[in-house]
Amino acid sequence: MDNKDYFCSCKNLSCALHPTKHDSGCTLCISKNLKLKEIPNCFFNLVDGAESREGDFFEDFARLVLASKEE
Questions:
Q1: With contact defined as beta carbons under 8 Å apart, do 24 and 16 qualify?
Q2: Nearest to 42 by CA among 6, 66, 69
Q3: Half-sphere exposure of 32 (CA within 13 A, CB side)
Q4: Model's pTM, two decimal places?
């Protein structure tokens, strides 16, 4: 697939795995996150208050999502 980097909505341009830094699209980021049982940064961008999260783990994402539903 051409232009893989256009799919990425991650705003963390300083990350070495960001698609603008290589030609593998989101593959390197997703692979790293799966290995560490983390959620990609771009998913956190969908939830209000994500910048104050404790980490990138599944539990951190779940807490944010549940908290946003309570508001």
A1: no
A2: 6
A3: 12
A4: 0.75
pLDDT digits (tens, 9 = 90+) for 9-34: 888 899 999 988 998 888 999 999 99
Contact assessment for residue 9 and residue 42, using Cβ atoms and an 8 Å cutoff: yes
Distance between CA atoms of residues 59 and 69, nearest Å: 15
The Cα–Cα gap between 29 and 65 comes to 21
Torsion of CA 32, 36, 42, 44, to 10 degrees: -170
| Tokens, residue 16 | 């070495």
Using CA atoms, how far apart are residues 62 and 24, in angstroms rounded to an integer? 28
Contacts of 26 (CB under 8 A, 6+ apart): 4, 7, 8, 19, 40
